[in-house]
Each structure stands twice: as structure tokens, then as C-alpha cells.
Amino acid sequence: MNTAVFAKSLSDNRRALAGWALGTAAVGMTYASTYPSQRDNTASLPEALREALHIDATAAGYLHASVFGVILPLLAMIYGVSTGSRTLAGDEEAGRLDLLLAHPVTRTSLALQRFAALTVGAGAISLLVWLAMLAIRDSAGLTSVTPAEFLAQCVNLALLAITFGALSLGLGAAVGRRAVALATTAIIGVLSYTAHALAGQIGADWLAYTSPFHYYIGGEPLKNGFQLGDIAVLAVTAFVVLAVGVMRFNRRDVG
């Protein structure tokens, strides 16, 4: 039973994961490929207006503001929240959790193997996004962003999905109700994104540091490459929220 739950989770979710990976990569590729037209439109604006609106017309600036700044992180969050919420809480509500725990597998091992499957899924999605960006890099005029910088942003994308997945899984393990885990994590995600987006505009820069989205993109990996401090914060956050949820899962009655 060392990895049986992990393998079964990947097998059961292979079609959904393929859909998530292909769909997310296709969305990212579609929006990223519009950079040449967006660059031309931006170039037609008066320089004073561009400076006033803080418009960055570079490839990294465009991708930072739209593709990796809005579209892909929201998709990654949705993947993490939806997958994590059904990982344990979904089985418990469906009456399958007792059957799983009747096998020689501990609750901790069950939770960790399910989380490992979620992590592999997030990694697969981000890998396909990275390959999609490389596929259109030349034709879309994105050559100023190196493959390593694309990889750095895609690693952070995976970690963002994993962080919200860990939170959703941990909440589901703690309370045993998928709807609670789904709604709570979704609300936290929306508030986190809002804090990251509006902190500078309302003069509360410190607020951004409470948001996972800040550590996902605040260091501008598309320009600066891997930001090890931000990676560590996302990884530790995922570990802590998962550990708290699993501790509660081990102590409560399941049913």
C-alpha cells in the first residue's frame, strides 16, 4: 500500500488532469500569442499616457500583467481548490472514506498520497504551459523572455496551485465537508488576489505580503528568473496548512 493510493488517484483523475493541462496551456498560448498586436497598440499611445498608466510594453511586462498575472493564476487556483476539496471530503461525503481506511493505510498516508497526486497534477499543468510558451516564443515575439525565466514563472504557477490545493485539502480533511472546504478556500483566494492587486493602490504595500499571489509573481520571475525566497514561502505555506489539516483529520471521527 506504499504508493497504491497515489497511483490510483492519478489513474482515476487522468482524463480530468489531461483536460486541465491541455486547456490551461491552450488558454495561455492563445493570450500570449496576441502580444505583437498588443505591443503595436501600446506603441501608438502617447508616451506620457503610457508612463501615467505604468504600461510596460515589453514581452515580460505584457505576460506579467495579463497571461501570468490574471488568467493562468486564476485557473491554477481553481484547479487547486476544486481538486483539493474533493480529495478527502468528497470521499467522506460519498461514504467511501471508511472503505479506504479499512485497508492497511493510515490517515496521514492517505492524505499525503492524495496530496502527492494533486502536486503531480499541478506540475504537469505547469510543464505543459511552459512547453506551450516555448512553442510560440519566436512567432509571438517573446524572445526577450528566456526559457529559464518562463520556467521560473511556471514553477511558481505550480506552487500557487499546490498552495491552494493544500489549503482546500487540509480544510476538507479537518471538517469533512467538501462545500465548506470549497467555499472557504475560494473566498480566501479571492481576498488574496484582491490584496495583491490593490495593496499598492490603497497605500498598504504590507498587505500584499499576506497574499500567496505576491510570492507567485511579485518577484517578477519573467524578468528576474527564479526567486528562491518566494518559492520557499509558497512551499512552506502549503506544508503548514496541509499539516494542520492532517492533524485534525487524525483526531476526529470520520463518518
Automatic annotation (TrEMBL):
Q: Which GO terms describe its molecular function?
A: ABC-type transporter activity
Pfam families recorded:
ABC2_membrane_2
List keywords of the entry alphabetically.
Answer: Membrane, Transmembrane, Transmembrane helix
Transmembrane segments annotated in the record for this chain: 59-81, 115-136, 148-167, 179-199, 231-249
User: Which GO terms of the cellular component aspect does the record hold?
Assistant: plasma membrane
Q: What is this protein called?
A: ABC transporter permease
Q: Which organism is it from?
A: Streptomyces gardneri
